[in-house]
UniProtKB/TrEMBL annotation:
<dbReference type="GO" id="GO:0006352">
    <property type="term" value="P:DNA-templated transcription initiation"/>
</dbReference>
<dbReference type="InterPro" id="IPR039425">
    <property type="entry name" value="RNA_pol_sigma-70-like"/>
</dbReference>
<dbReference type="InterPro" id="IPR036388">
    <property type="entry name" value="WH-like_DNA-bd_sf"/>
</dbReference>
<dbReference type="GO" id="GO:0016987">
    <property type="term" value="F:sigma factor activity"/>
</dbReference>
<feature type="domain" description="RNA polymerase sigma factor 70 region 4 type 2">
    <location>
        <begin position="147"/>
        <end position="199"/>
    </location>
</feature>
<dbReference type="InterPro" id="IPR013324">
    <property type="entry name" value="RNA_pol_sigma_r3/r4-like"/>
</dbReference>
<dbReference type="Pfam" id="PF04542">
    <property type="entry name" value="Sigma70_r2"/>
</dbReference>
<dbReference type="InterPro" id="IPR013249">
    <property type="entry name" value="RNA_pol_sigma70_r4_t2"/>
</dbReference>
<dbReference type="InterPro" id="IPR014284">
    <property type="entry name" value="RNA_pol_sigma-70_dom"/>
</dbReference>
<protein>
    <submittedName>
        <fullName>RNA polymerase subunit sigma-24</fullName>
    </submittedName>
</protein>
<keyword id="KW-0731">Sigma factor</keyword>
<keyword id="KW-0805">Transcription regulation</keyword>
<dbReference type="GO" id="GO:0003677">
    <property type="term" value="F:DNA binding"/>
</dbReference>
<dbReference type="InterPro" id="IPR013325">
    <property type="entry name" value="RNA_pol_sigma_r2"/>
</dbReference>
<dbReference type="Pfam" id="PF08281">
    <property type="entry name" value="Sigma70_r4_2"/>
</dbReference>
<comment type="similarity">
    <text>Belongs to the sigma-70 factor family. ECF subfamily.</text>
</comment>
<dbReference type="InterPro" id="IPR007627">
    <property type="entry name" value="RNA_pol_sigma70_r2"/>
</dbReference>
Amino acid sequence: MKPRKVPEKTDKYQVRYSEKEYLEMPDEMVWTSFNKGNESTFSFLYKNYASDLFAFGYQFCGDAHLVEDCIQNLFIYLRKRRGRLGEVRSIKSYLFKCIRSEIIKRMKERGQLMDADEMHYKKSFALALSPETILIESEHRERQQKRVKHALAQLTVRQRQALLLLYEEEMSYSQIAEVMGFSDVKSARKLVYRALASLKDVFLKK
């Protein structure tokens, strides 16, 4: 989109844009506006991403109060760090990465984190993917739903997280890699492929 024309002496990053205009902007421009102290942009970020962060965080740990606290802490931190934050290409994947790290930190403090490497928690990651997302339509949908639920229960927490990000949040593999802390996209692809292979094995069983 072409940015709105503003007076020459006005910093375009301090202009108060409408929600529609923000949604049409590249993430880099929105983030730069926020990083330069634009209060309107900060409000947009909270309004536009808080609900998604809560949904992801709740799936992640199943504790609504913890997730709400983590979201508040995250935005307080970001607001305080304005002007010193680095460039961000994808705001959503960046915020998901931040909230995931914050939740892990809090769970460690509570002693709820069992295996930091494999991300196994005392409360399992309750992935809620719809069967329609990953299965071909079938007249035996009820039976398929039960098989999906059983198959998902066999996956590791990290595999379920990856599928959630791919199918529910519609993230790219590079974004999944960023959220989950992988050093390369290949690792994210490998994780998803293994998860889908595991699901396929279950569906092929009679």
